[in-house]
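Sequence in, structure out. Go.
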Amino acid sequence: MDKNKRVRGAEAYLLALRTGEVPATQEAGKYLAKDVQLFGAPVWGRQGASIDGHDDVLYRITGEWPNTPVYVKGFWSEAKTEGDQLKISGTFPAMGAAPASMNITFSYNADDQISRIDQEIVPQPRPEATDYIPDAARGLINGALRNNTPMTVAYVDENGVPNLSLRGSVQVYSPTQLSIWLRNQGGGMPKALKTNNNIGLLYRDSNTRSTLVIKGKGHIEDSPEIRDRVWNMIQDVEQKHETRESGCALIIDVTSMGGGTPKGGVRVQREA
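Output:
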């Protein structure tokens, strides 16, 4: 048994998996047996799938796959001997759509080529359902504009036409509500809410693979106290659009929210 060759092979495979770069995959290919098998989760959405043969396995570590941006940020161990096998383990920084950790086990043939690779992905814990907006989501929503990830808001106008817009003033108003300062009280969204109060919101930060998909029921608040509070919650740059007199306060009662954040998953479900 040539331990050094086996370690070099495992390290080459990991580098290719992490980066997908052609020089790395070409090097890894030198250590794969012709009949190598890959088990585990090589393809997004196909937990437990298997890939057979040198060329097909090599293809799975070439280029960018859905989890490549996760793997490249991992904290990977050295290759450790476990009997006749080598094992490398990795954990990942806090991200939304990402596993918690991963274990890779390498088996070898008599020529010290990699004959089998077992990839075990350890998922993040499934989020507990709540009937309120959790702190992980609250932080993302309240900091969305500062983070250069303003939220997308969707509604259907009085003609039944869907509309999308970016809104920088979205804030968490209460444990079950969001607020938005609308700059024009006579605009499309206030009019649409009179006939259809369904509203959808989307938050996405690709850097942390964080996503929030939100559904709710919206209404315009005329209360001076609520108007003042919503106005005072929005960012300075939003206030400097000078729409206090022309605008209005939108309150959204959240009915559902789901997604992933660096602090874990989010699953909110409330009655409409």
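Check: The radius of gyration is 25 Å. The longest strand covers residues 248-261.
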